[in-house]
Design a protein that fits this description.
seven-stranded parallel sheet; 33% helix; alpha/beta; 21% strand; Rossmann fold; single chain; 10 strands
Length: 230
């Protein structure tokens, strides 16, 4: 089986974002022909904003769809460093149309990251396997909050370990979908921009040494939506 990603090359981020939104919508429609609900994990950060907005404008039966982040910083939802506020704003048309949002934000300020990860896993398990997962990719090859060298985060987790706590060096602690959840998604896509990250992906595929390769399985192809420039 050919395990090389399917590359979708676009001149700019706007084009790549719209193409990805169209692709995700088509995947969702296919899933909903076979089952009652679909679940879609989405990336935060600045790069995916155009994609999230384009996805939210798709003509979909949003009341049958659960949206959730791939990862989140362990901060309140209204914190300036939270991805949720930006994501919910971009996805507002879909949320107003009835899409369910599965928040990764803790409402218990004294709760430990590990305890909340276990609590959150119980909420995520009912929407698995994911219908679609879309990830961004860092220049170090990380996806979600699974970083190179973090053995606990990158290990293939067993049943029930849907969420893993992550402690990236120099950054806030985070919550991330586990490697097994990402690998188990029915469809998977990447969105990134620039020649540097394209080279990162090429080298990761050659060496098999970066978390981004977790998205590659024998069961399905990975689709990479690549913008030549921002």
């Amino acid at each position: 089986m050919n395990r090389d990603p399917v590359l979708h090359l676009h001149a700019d981020l706007a084009g790549a974002s719209q193409a990805l939104a169209d692709w995700v919508a088509a995947c969702i429609r296919t899933v909903l022909e076979q089952q009652e609900r679909a679940s879609v994990a989405l990336p935060g950060g600045s790069t995916p904003g155009l994609f999230l907005a384009a996805l939210a404008k798709q003509d979909l039966p949003w009341k049958r769809i659960t949206l959730l982040p791939t990862d989140e910083r362990f901060v309140p939802a209204d914190h300036p460093r939270s991805n949720e506020r930006m994501m919910r704003a971009a996805l507002q048309p879909a949320l107003l149309a009835g899409a369910e949002w599965l928040s990764f934000a803790s409402e218990e300020p004294r709760q430990s990251l590990e305890d909340f990860a276990r609590h959150l896993a119980g909420r995520v398990l009912p929407v698995l396997p994911l219908s679609v997962v879309v990830c961004g990719m860092g220049e170090d090859g990380h996806i979600a909050s699974l970083f190179p060298g973090d053995a606990a985060a990158n290990a293939d987790q067993g049943e029930g370990q849907a969420i893993v706590p992550a402690f990236p060096a120099g950054l806030e602690p985070r919550l991330s979908l586990s490697a097994s959840v990402l690998r188990g998604a029915q469809e998977a896509a990447l969105l990134f921009a620039g020649e540097v990250k394209r080279h990162v992906l090429t080298e990761a595929l050659r060496l098999g040494d970066k978390p981004v390769t977790l998205l590659i399985t024998e069961r399905r192809r990975l689709h990479a939506f690549v913008a030549e420039q921002l």
